[in-house]
Amino acid sequence: MSETTSPPTAAGDGQINPEVLQNIQVTISVEVGRAMIKIRDLMRLTQGSVVELDHIAGEPLDLLVNKTVVAQGEVVLVNDRYGIRLTRVVPASERMKNL
Predict the structure, then answer these.
(1) Which fold has domain 27-97?
(2) pTM (2 decimals)?
């Protein structure tokens, strides 16, 4: 007779095991802004070209996790690398509406 065990993704009471969730990798990106241009204009871009974005200078940048905005912030320098200081975290209820 074999013993039945719960899969590693679920706790015995049907809940998701937090340890499993904590080991899932996600992609984090920072979005400065967006632009829509025609392919004709895209093909004309050269070194030194400027593409105007939809964000205004000084506006917070968007922090995305798997393409979902989860926070906003500002660029900071950390040991010769760029970072982002969060100024606003999007509430979970608001994030769920955008899924």
Answers:
(1) Surface presentation of antigens (SPOA) (2.30.330)
(2) 0.68
